[in-house]
Amino acid sequence: MDITSRVRVLDNETVYDGWSSFNRATFDYQHRNGTWQTQTRDIFDCGHGAALLPYDLERRTVILVRQFRYAAFSEAYTDLLLETPAGLLDDASPEERIVIEVEEETGYRVSDVTKVFECFVSPGAVTQKIHCFVAPYRPGDRVSEGGGLTSEGEDIEVLEMDFDEAYAMIADARIQDCKTIMLLQYAALNLFNAKGAAGT
Ligand SMILES: Nc1nc2c(ncn2[C@@H]2O[C@H](COP(=O)(O)OP(=O)(O)O[C@H]3O[C@H](CO)[C@@H](O)[C@H](O)[C@@H]3O)[C@@H](O)[C@H]2O)c(=O)[nH]1
Ligand SMILES: [Mg+2]
């Protein structure tokens, strides 16, 4: 379904333009019953991103990263956040960008990369879409320490974790990042034969 004819943008004001941008859009939207309504929405834009879960089926492990996230901290999450490696696209394609980002953050050089889904992270207010990937890895694929770019303020800890332990961390809220939850659930359903995954 293409709903372009049901939206008329009246104004798109840039409220802030810096590392990210913040816009206030005013538009007419035609409801399903045919009536038009004027709405205003504040929209946060920091570009699109890509995320990847490296997995080793033989050793039943995955690679996650742990880092400080001020946005979560400001909402009383006082621990470091556990996530899959991920990054902003910065004008590259998701496929190109994610391989570079995984090596920068984890030190692992992955090659057999599979796109599994893409998702809007918070579509009521945030423009960002995350392209999500998985890739197998072996211990010998580690070519550097990783850790991210100190010059950009990154201080990233690399964790190789037992898959079942990582998966269980969703249920007790030790993992709260949405791309990480979705990729671990994808892996439980499609890669590992996980206890508690649907159909097992
Ligand atoms: N958030 C933020 N980051 C900034 C800013 N200025 C510079 N940065 C730097 O921009 C870099 C972004 O690192 P990436 O690895 O590219 O992105 P990320 O922060 O890991 O993740 C982003 O993309 C993910 C999706 O792939 C998102 O899940 C995540 O929320 C975030 O937007 C970091 O080094 C960060 O320090 C700023 O004002 N705000
Ligand atoms: Mg990152």
Automatic annotation (TrEMBL):
Give the matching CDD domains: NUDIX_GDPMK
Q: Where is the Nudix hydrolase domain?
A: 52-166
Drop me one GO molecular function for this one: hydrolase activity, acting on acid anhydrides, in phosphorus-containing anhydrides
The coenzyme or cofactor needed here is:
Mg(2+)
Q: Which UniProt keywords apply?
A: Hydrolase, Magnesium, Metal-binding
Where on this chain does Mg(2+) bind? A86, E101, E105, E154
* Pfam families in alphabetical order: NUDIX (PF00293)
Query: Where along the sequence does the record place the motif called Nudix box?
Result: 87-108
Spell out the reaction equation it catalyses: GDP-alpha-D-mannose + H2O = alpha-D-mannose 1-phosphate + GMP + 2 H(+)
Against Gene3D superfamilies, the record matches this protein to: Nucleoside Triphosphate Pyrophosphohydrolase (3.90.79.10)
Looking at the record's lineage, which domain of life comes first? Bacteria
GO CC annotation: what is one? cytosol
Q: Please list the GO biological process terms of this entry.
A: nucleoside phosphate metabolic process; ribose phosphate metabolic process
In which family does this protein belong, per the annotation?
Answer: Belongs to the Nudix hydrolase family. NudK subfamily.
Quaternary context = Homodimer.
Q: What is this protein called?
A: GDP-mannose pyrophosphatase
State the organism named in the record. Answer: Hoeflea prorocentri
Q: State the taxonomy lineage.
A: Bacteria, Pseudomonadati, Pseudomonadota, Alphaproteobacteria, Hyphomicrobiales
